[in-house]
Design a protein that fits this description.
Elements (H helix, E strand, L loop, with lengths): L6 E7 L2 E8 L2 E5 L29 E3 L13 E4 L2 E6 L3 E6 L4 E7 L9 E3 L2 E5 L5 E5 L5 E5 L10 E3 L2 E5 L4 E6 L4 E6 L9 E3 L2 E6 L3 E6 L4 E6 L9 E2 L4 E5 L4 E6 L5 E7 L10 E3 L2 E5 L4 E6 L5 E6 L11 E3 L11 E5 L7 E5 L7 E3 L2
Antiparallel strand pairs: 1-2, 2-3, 3-4, 5-6, 6-7, 7-8, 9-10, 10-11, 11-12, 13-14, 14-15, 15-16, 17-18, 18-19, 19-20, 21-22, 22-23, 23-24, 25-26, 26-27, 27-28, 29-30, 30-31, 31-32
C-alpha cells in the first residue's frame, strides 16, 4: 500500500458523539472530550464492561481477529447495535457495537480504499481496481455494478438522484440509481477525491494540476491551474470563495461567482497538502506533510499561526471539526488531526490554534 493514513469521522455510540479512527489493522473509538479510549458499555446495566482483572474494556476492533482485516474507511451507522465497515481485503463487516466484534460479513469482488455512500438503504461501494457496485443494505443483494478502467479511490456522492464519482482513469461519472450512465467528463488526469457540490456545480481537482468547475450535466464550465496535483476536496465559504490545496503546499482562493478568478494564491507549507482545507469563520485551516497545522486568514492568505505536531509526522488525513457539546463538556470547537504515527494517532487543537487539549496514542 505504501503510505496510508487514518480515516477519521464522528459516530454515535451509547447516545454520544464519538470519534472513530480506522487505520491499518484496527478501528478505535475515542472520546472527543479528552482523547480517552471509549469504553465498552453493558446496555442492560449502563456499566462499563470489565475483563477478568477488573480493567475497563475499551472499544477497539482488531483486524487480526478477523483474517487480518485492514481498515481505511469510516464505519457506517446502522442502528444502536450495528455498524458496517469495509475491510480492505474485500468484505463488508457487520460490527456489534456493544461488544466491538464482527457478527457477519459480505464478500465483495475487490479491495476497498474509500468510504461507502449510503442512500435510500443502498450501499454504493467504490472498488480499488475500478468501478462502483450498488448493494442493498438489508440483505447485500448486488443491484448493479458499473465498471471503470482504473480504480475508484474516493467516496461517491449523491447529486440530484445521480451517483457521482471520480476515478483514476481521469473521468468523473454520473450514474442513475438503475446503474445507467448519464454522463462522464474527462478531467485530464487521475482523480482521487470526491467532488464538492455547491450552487448547482461540481468542483473537483485532478492530478493534471487543475481545479474543474463542472455543471450537473457534465459540462466543464471553468478551470484553474494549480501548482501541483490536487488530492483533497476543496472547501467553499459562504461568500462564494473556494479554497483548494495542492501537493506543492499552496492554497488557492478562487471566486466561484467570477469564473474561478484568483483572489490569492500562497505557498503556506514546505511540503504537500494532501487533505482538503477546512473553512471556519474567517480562517482556512490545513494540515501538511511537513507535520504542521496552519491557520490562514482566508481573505488574504496570510498565515496567522502554525502548530507543529511533535516529531513532525506526516499529516495526511482530512481534518475533522468537533462542535461544542454540553453533554461532553466541550466548550470550544476542536480540530482533530490524524497522523501516520500511532504514538500520536489523533491530535486535538482548539479551533483558534491557541491550545492542544489532548493527544490520542494507540
Amino acid at each position: 500500500m505504501g503510505v496510508s493514513w487514518p480515516s477519521v469521522d464522528v459516530i454515535e455510540l451509547n447516545g454520544e458523539q464519538q470519534i472513530v479512527v480506522s487505520y491499518t489493522d484496527r478501528v478505535d473509538i475515542v472520546s472527543p472530550q479528552n482523547g480517552a479510549h471509549a469504553p465498552l458499555i453493558n446496555p442492560a446495566t449502563g456499566e462499563i464492561r470489565r475483563d477478568a482483572e477488573n480493567n475497563a474494556r475499551n472499544w477497539v476492533l482488531l483486524g487480526s481477529d478477523y483474517e487480518n482485516a485492514q481498515f481505511y474507511t469510516n464505519p457506517i451507522y446502522v442502528d444502536e447495535e450495528t455498524f458496517l465497515i469495509a475491510d480492505y481485503n474485500g468484505r463488508i463487516l457487520e460490527i456489534d457495537t456493544v461488544t466491538a466484534t464482527v457478527k457477519g460479513s459480505f464478500t465483495l469482488t475487490n479491495h476497498v480504499l474509500a468510504n461507502i455512500l449510503v442512500a435510500d438503504d443502498v450501499l454504493y461501494v467504490p472498488l480499488q481496481s475500478g468501478g462502483v457496485t450498488a448493494i442493498t443494505m438489508d440483505d447485500y443483494e448486488v443491484i448493479w455494478s458499473y465498471p471503470t478502467e482504473e480504480g475508484v479511490w474516493a467516496e461517491p456522492i449523491l447529486v440530484d438522484n445521480m451517483i457521482v464519482f471520480t476515478s483514476l482513469d481521469h473521468h468523473m461519472y454520473a450514474i442513475d440509481k438503475s446503474g445507467e450512465l448519464q454522463w462522464k467528463v474527462d478531467l485530464e488526469g487521475a482523480v482521487s477525491s470526491k467532488p464538492l457540490v455547491a450552487n448547482d456545480r461540481l468542483y473537483v481537482g485532478s492530478y493534471n494540476k487543475k481545479l474543474f468547475e463542472v455543471s450537473l450535466d457534465g459540462d466543464i464550465i471553468n478551470t484553474y491551474n494549480t501548482q501541483n496535483w490536487v488530492w483533497g476536496t476543496p472547501a467553499l465559504a459562504d461568500d462564494g470563495i473556494i479554497y483548494v490545496a495542492d501537493l506543492s503546499g499552496y492554497i488557492h482562493a478562487l471566486d466561484t461567482t467570477d469564473n474561478l478568478s484568483m483572489v490569492w494564491s500562497e505557498q503556506v507549507a514546505t511540503r504537500g497538502i494532501r487533505s482538503g482545507p477546512l473553512v471556519y469563520e474567517d480562517t482556512v485551516i490545513v494540515a501538511s506533510r511537513d507535520g504542521l497545522v496552519y491557520w490562514i486568514d482566508r481573505h488574504n492568505g496570510v498565515v496567522l499561526t502554525q502548530k507543529e505536531v511533535e516529531g513532525k509526522p506526516e499529516l495526511l488525513s482530512d481534518l475533522l471539526l468537533i462542535e461544542p457539546s454540553e453533554s461532553l463538556n466541550i466548550d470550544k470547537p476542536l480540530i482533530i488531526v490524524g497522523t501516520v504515527d500511532t504514538s500520536k494517532l489523533l491530535v486535538a487543537f482548539e479551533v483558534d490554534g491557541l491550545r492542544q487539549p489532548w493527544v490520542y496514542k494507540r
